[in-house]
Specification:
single chain; alpha/beta; Dihydrodipicolinate Reductase, domain 2; 7-stranded mixed sheet; 16 helices
C-alpha cells in the first residue's frame, strides 16, 4: 500500500488528507499538536496521527524512511531541512510554498539521487502557474508571442461576509498575509523593470472589474520578474503578479505601515493601552484626540477608511494591552486575527485573473483572459484550503502512480504536471474559464 507522510495539520491540511484517504492511500499526519492531527484523521482506517518535532532529526528521519512520499505543509522555513532528510532517504517531497534559495540549492543533489522535490503546487503559487502555462504553451504552439502578462489572485471573504473597513477576513495564516505586505515588489512594465519599496507597496494599487464580484484592488506581489524565465516569456514587455483585495484594504494597510504598526522592533509596552501603544509607535502624543492627531499625521479626513479601520480594530482604544516586551507587528497581527477571523458558518472565496496580450503570425493580436472564482462551504472546507491542498494532493497521487517522472527541484510548469492536475481540479469543481478577444 502506498504511504504518505503529511507534516503539518494546519488550516489547509484537511482536504489533502481526505483526498489521499479517499484514494486508498495510507496517510500519517504528523504535527506538534497531536490532538489536531487526530481530529483531521477522524478515525479513518488508513490514517494515523503522530506527534512530531521537526527539529528532532532522528524522529523525522524515521518517519520519512517509513513512507513512500512526504508532503510538507509546515512553515516554509522548515522545507529545506525536510528536503535534506528526504534526500537522505531517497523520498519524493511535495510542498505548496515558493522555492527559496535553500531549496533551489538542493536541485543538483536531488537530480543525482533521482528524487523529485515538487514545490509551488498550491493556489498562489500553484494553480496560477499551471493555468498560465497551459495558455502560454497553447499560444506558442500556434506561433504566437506573449507581449504582456498580468496575473492577479486573492483569497477573500465572500461578499456577504465582509463586515469591516478592511474588507477582509482571515481564512489562512494572518502572519503570512501581513508579512507578504512587508516585502518589496518587482515587475516589468513596457520593457522597464520597476521596483517598489516595501513602504510604498500599497500606494501602487490598480483597480480591476471581476465578473460577479465587482471592483477589486490589486497591489504587486513580490518578485514578478523572476517568473519571466520560469515561464519562458522571452518576448514579454510587461509582466506583473498581483494580489487582489476589496477596496479599502490597500489604503488601510498603507496607513498602518506609515504609523509603524507593522514594525518588528520589540519594545516594552507594559501597562499601556492600545491607543497609547499606537501613539508611541506612530511618534505622536496620546491624548483624547488621537483620531484627529492621526488623521492630521496621515493627511486624511477623520472619517476616512484608514481612521475608521484603526478605530474598528481597537487600536485607538483605552483598553489595556496585557502585553509586555513585544513588537507592534505581533500585537497588531494577533488583534487582527481576533477581530477578523472568518467564522465557521461563513464563506470565503478565491479569485484569480490572468490577462494576456498576444501577437500571432501576420500581426493579428488577441487578448486572453483566464478566470477562477471559487467559494468555500459554510461549516465545511474553505476555498483557500481546497485550492491550496487539492493540487498538492492530486500531484501526490500522480507521483505515486508513476505519472510524474521528473527529478530535482521543480515547479508545476510542465504539461506532465499541469494538464492532469488542472483536469482533475475541474472535475472536483475548481475550474477556470477562458475568454479570447480580437484586439484592434
Amino acid at each position: 500500500m502506498q504511504r504518505v507522510l503529511v507534516l503539518g495539520a494546519g488550516r489547509v491540511a484537511a482536504p489533502l488528507v481526505k483526498y489521499l484517504l479517499d484514494h486508498s492511500i495510507s496517510v500519517t499526519l504528523a504535527d506538534d499538536d497531536y490532538k489536531r492531527a487526530l481530529i483531521l484523521i477522524d478515525g479513518h482506517p488508513l490514517g494515523r496521527a503522530a506527534h512530531v518535532n521537526v527539529t528532532d532529526e532522528a524522529l523525522l528521519n524515521q518517519l520519512v524512511g517509513n513512507h513512500d512520499l512526504v508532503v510538507s505543509l509546515l512553515p516554509y522555513l522548515f522545507h529545506a531541512e525536510v528536503a535534506k532528510v528526504c534526500l537522505k532517504n531517497l523520498k519524493n517531497l511535495v510542498t505548496t510554498s515558493y522555492v527559496k534559495p535553500e531549496m533551489e540549492n538542493l536541485d543538483a543533489a536531488a537530480r543525482k539521487a533521482g528524487v523529485l522535490f515538487l514545490n509551488e503546487i498550491g493556489l498562489d503559487p500553484g494553480i496560477d502557474h499551471m493555468s498560465a502555462m497551459r495558455i502560454i504553451h497553447q499560444v506558442e504552439s500556434a506561433g504566437g508571442i506573449i507581449i504582456e502578462f498580468n496575473s492577479f489572485c486573492g483569497a477573500l471573504p465572500a461578499p456577504e461576509a465582509v463586515n469591516n473597513p478592511f474588507g477582509y477576513r482571515f481564512s489562512w495564516n494572518p502572519k503570512g498575509v501581513l508579512l507578504a505586505g512587508n516585502s518589496e515588489a518587482r515587475y516589468l512594465y513596457n520593457g522597464n523593470e520597476v521596483v517598489i519599496a516595501s513602504e510604498n507597496l500599497f500606494k501602487n494599487k490598480l483597480t480591476i472589474d471581476f465578473p460577479e464580484i465587482g471592483k477589486l484592488e490589486v497591489y504587486p506581489n513580490r518578485d514578478s520578474v523572476s517568473y519571466i524565465d520560469i515561464y519562458g516569456l522571452k518576448d514579454v514587455q510587461s509582466m506583473m503578479r498581483g494580489t487582489l483585495r476589496y477596496p479599502g484594504w490597500c489604503e488601510a494597510l498603507d496607513a498602518m505601515k506609515r504609523l509603524n504598526l507593522f514594525s518588528d522592533r520589540k519594545e516594552d509596552f507594559s501597562g499601556l493601552s492600545f491607543g497609547e501603544m499606537t501613539a508611541r509607535v506612530a511618534g505622536v502624543s496620546e491624548t483624547g484626540y488621537l483620531k484627529e492627531i492621526l488623521s492630521e499625521k496621515l493627511n486624511v479626513p477623520v472619517e476616512s477608511t484608514p481612521i475608521k479601520a484603526l478605530e474598528w480594530l481597537g487600536l485607538l482604544s483605552p483598553m489595556l494591552l496585557s502585553r509586555g516586551f513585544e513588537s507592534p507587528f505581533e500585537i497588531v497581527s494577533d488583534l487582527m486575527l481576533e477581530r477578523m477571523e472568518l467564522l465557521p458558518d461563513e464563506r470565503d472565496m478565491v479569485v484569480m485573473k490572468h490577462l494576456f496580450k498576444v501577437v500571432y503570425p501576420g500581426g493579428k493580436r488577441k487578448s486572453i483572459e483566464c478566470r477562477l472564482l471559487d467559494f468555500g462551504v459554510p461549516a465545511g472546507d474553505t476555498s483557500i484550503a481546497r485550492t491550496v491542498a487539492l493540487p498538492a494532493a492530486i500531484a501526490c497521487r500522480l507521483i505515486l502512480d508513476g505519472k510524474i517522472n521528473l527529478t530535482g527541484v521543480q515547479r508545476p510548469v510542465s504539461a506532465e504536471i499541469y494538464n492532469p492536475v488542472l483536469d482533475e481540479l475541474a472535475v472536483l469543481g475548481i475550474a477556470l474559464s477562458e475568454d479570447y478577444r480580437d484586439d484592434m
